[in-house]
Description:
By secondary structure, the protein is an alpha+beta fold.
Amino acid sequence: MAETAAPSGTTTSGSLLASLDPLLREWLPRQRWFAGKGRPVTGFSLVAATELLPSDSNLGLHHLLVRVHQPPTLGAPARPGDCYQLLIGEREALPPRLAPALIGHVTAGPLAGHTVYDALYDPRPAEVLLEALRAQARIGGLRFERDPGQEIRDGLVARLLTAEQSNSSVVYGDTFILKLLRRVVPGVNPDLELPLALARGGCARVPAPTAWLRADVAGDAYVLAVLQPFVQGAADGWELALRELAKGEDFAAEARALGRATAEVHLALARALPTVTLGHGLLRSLVDGMVERLEAAAQAVPALRPYEAGLRSAYRALDGLAAEGRTWTAQRVHGDLHLGQCLRSPSGDWSLIDFEGEPARPLPERRLPQPPVRDIAGMLRSFDYAAHSVTPPAPGWAAVCRDAYCSGYAEAAGSDPRADPVLLRAYETDKAVYEVVYEARHRPDWLAVPLSAVRRLAITSPSPRRPHP
């Protein structure tokens, strides 16, 4: 793959970061993608800095990897701070159209007297990224790479998607979408690894990566961004479900089609990447992880404690089946599947996106083979969330969608997840426990939604059932 030579642009001095420090302390905690909310920022350390546009021009552009230092949460061990990817634009004055992107005015250091802002709001800096990907540039430790079989046209106008999310996305002329990862860790990121594997296997349910951005820093490799085709006119699964709910329309046909799409992706992943058999030993380690997460959640959220014993029984039941000799197949899965991770094209076809997994979990854990039911449990919980987003809640709507989704999955996979209720209950329980902690920390008004599932799962004693037709 040919590369375009470019100046290194790498800043080794911490003077740039020092000048930005007081501004970032105020700006970062306000960002939707900042994971350390509720804890003070005590400092920063520079992982890497690369100049993408020189500061002596009318527009400067700096790519930063910054480690944010914060005190640990109560009872948690101390660990290195999270590393964030920042694209800092620099202008003498900020035009009114970029007011929402403002970080602040620099008073000292190399950018003194200039205004800095989140450059993804500005079309020109965003287009610099696309140009570098098309040219397969190497700038400092940044490597812009692409699939040589896909064309990237020039002249595509960039626009930032402003919907709240854990990363940032830029659309280029309704042709491509660039997902820029905000909180980054070194290693093989499944958000690039799995779509590449699926593309090689010919799976059309996942947009094939067109290009991607990596960084090599002190022997560590990071995946920073992925460019994929933009599905023009596609409907986000969550928004589509809420629209149908608001109109009182049935969503069962869409849920069934989404179940088939999920199964097709699982089958393609099983063909493309190794699978493992979970016997008692491997299953026990998964169950132990579930128990540990439950115990930590009960400590963090007192409202969960009355249900702890009942929830623990879901895990004991699964461990008991394994002890009797039952085995399961584990494979690579999506890892964080819900309605918002699905797109329906104008033709009615469903696609799955965002294979990063749950960002709060360690990268090695996100890359572990899991039973496919983990993804299924996530989607079933998502139907429940949608049903509770309307007033009054519509639990019957969720139940119909859950059954339709499982039926669609069975049509494509040849096996119905409802036929293994002990496994399904354990994974639904693990997901609901995760949701309780998330909502308690970030959206207390939503805590009642996973708690309602917790009450149901704590008293459920599943028994084999006949799959629905």
